[in-house]
Amino acid sequence: MPEQPARERAGNFREVTLGYTAEDAAREAARCLQCKNPPCRKGCPVEIDIKGFIGRLREGDRDGAYRVLRETNSLPAVCGRVCPQEVQCEGACVLGKKGEPVAIGRLERYVADSFAAGNGCRQSTGERACAAPREVRVACIGSGPASLTAAGYLASLGVAVTVFEALHEPGGVLVYGIPEFRLPKSVVRRELAAMGEMGVSFRTNWVGGKTITVRDLLDEGYAAVFIGVGAGLPRFMDIPGENLIGVYSANEYLTRVNLGRAAFPGYDTPVCRGARVAVLGGGNVAMDAARTALRLGAKAVTVVYRRTKGEMPARREELNHALEEGVRLELLANPLRYNGDESRRLTGMTLERQRLGAPDASGRRSPEPTGETFELPVDTAIIAIGTRPNPILLESTPELRLGKRGYIEVDPASGETALPRVYAGGDIVTGAATVISAMGAGRRAARAIARKFLGEDAVTA
To answer: What are the CB-based long-range contacts (under 8 Å, 24+) for 115-118?
Structure first.
């Protein structure tokens, strides 16, 4: 797929990948073998009819391809950009066994972006018109991909859905977490507008567990409540100096830039524009933070990771984009402390060299300290080593059953929690995972809600 040149894109927030032309998409779609029993669909958490949508595209029926996508995916333009297709649908593609798999994600993005006709109902539900309004009301707490998927599915069946969002814009991690250069906010707003036209109501500045509780919603007459609040509480390392000026969690840093518009003129929402930036972690969030720091004018950005490059959990595409743009890696290194000046401003980090030992529970070799230390001069450090559940809503709903790590336990088939009529899905159940897996959870819960309150006949594929 065409891209902005690395030197150019490192200085702006425009989308890095430029999308397929009609000719590009036609050539790529023609590579699909149209397998009798396509394994790619089994690799998709929301079970998109991949063979069907690519088949329509091969025939020149772009609108038909879009309708096929929308039958199971509420956010195809989003998924086409941020889903890890290489380990899901494309990872299962037959062509990938001996060469390059079909670029399913890029084709999905092309179809979604190029489809311009129809109103909100049609845009969000494909060929189905919105069902006649029903008496059933459902509330979704949180407006990330799990809740949006649940809301879109139920709204297509005529259910009145209200989405409660703690922040001042809906979209969840799609808005505050993923940078503009990976996922333009106009794409998210387009999907939200379509849901609004379907009848989904969004209420912002409503904090689940404070402004509104689960019990409040049930008492107000909502038939069911879906909890999709994500896992937005950052993890820290609890090492000396973490409270120095210039040390950020990735959550705060990216939210200030993405949702607070800190990088854009006309918005009075500052963020530290460091000259020498270190990012701790090796996942997609670490890559997002590092590449954002470059775009804010950093002269040097270093990703510090305690294992090797090959063991980084970030998508290969995101890692390669970061390296092309000038991000450097400091591998087999672990921070011991942050160092500051008399004004308590960060001036550097003390790191310890690591070596790889025996595999840990995940199968990756565990890092072990060597005792050798060195200094890394930095004025900004961004911690991107994972997240945990925010306790605000959980503490206000003691009837929920939590697992050992503090996430909500649910019935895996329906998403229902220990509290009847209350469902949950996404990162608040699984811990930090992918957008598409959260969407899959939202879809499963929505189908269970539809069966319970509308009957089996109302349930769609």
So the answer is: 115/62, 115/63, 115/66, 117/63
> Which tens digits make up the pLDDT trace of 180-207?
999 999 999 988 988 888 899 999 999 9
Least confident piece of the model among 26-40, 128-142, 193-207, 438-452:
128-142
Which two three-digit tokens encode residue 186?
Answer: 């106009």
The phi, psi pair for 218, rounded to 5°, reads: -65, -40
b or e along 298-333 (b: 16 or more beta carbons within 10 Å of the residue's beta carbon)? bebbbbbbbbbeebbebbebbbebbbebbbebbbbb
Q: How far is it, in rounded angstroms, from Cα 260 to Cα 326?
A: 25
pLDDT number for residue 125: 46
Q: CB of 184 within 8 A of CB of 162?
A: no
Task: Determine the pLDDT at residue 36.
Answer: 93
Q: What's the DSSP call for residue 116?
A: -
Range 6-117 has CATH code 3.20.20.190: no
Q: How far is residue 69's CA from residue 73's CA, in Å, rounded to a whole number?
A: 6
Q: Taking the alpha carbons of 258, 259, 263, 266 in that order, is the dihedral positive or negative?
A: positive
Q: Which residue do the tokens 């897996």 mark?
A: 437
Q: In the prediction, which pLDDT does 3 show?
A: 94
The per-residue pLDDT for 461 is 58
Intervals of CATH 3.50.50.60 along the chain: 128-232+389-458, 233-387
Query: Could you tell me which CATH number the domain at 233-387 has?
Result: 3.50.50.60
Domain limits, CATH 1.10.1060.10, in the chain: 6-117
The predicted pLDDT at position 132 comes to 62
Mean pLDDT over residues 199-220, rounded?
95
> Tell me: domain 128-232+389-458, CATH 3.50.50.60, correct?
yes
pTM for the whole thing?
A: 0.92
Round the average pLDDT of the chain to a whole number and report it: 92
In 3-state terms, what secondary structure has residue 377? strand
What order of strands is seen across the sheet that includes strand 346-359?
333-340, 346-359, 365-377
Contact 346, 244 (CB under 8 A): yes
Phi, psi of 368 (to 5 degrees): -130, 140
Closest among 388, 383, 352, 386 to 246, alpha carbons compared: 383
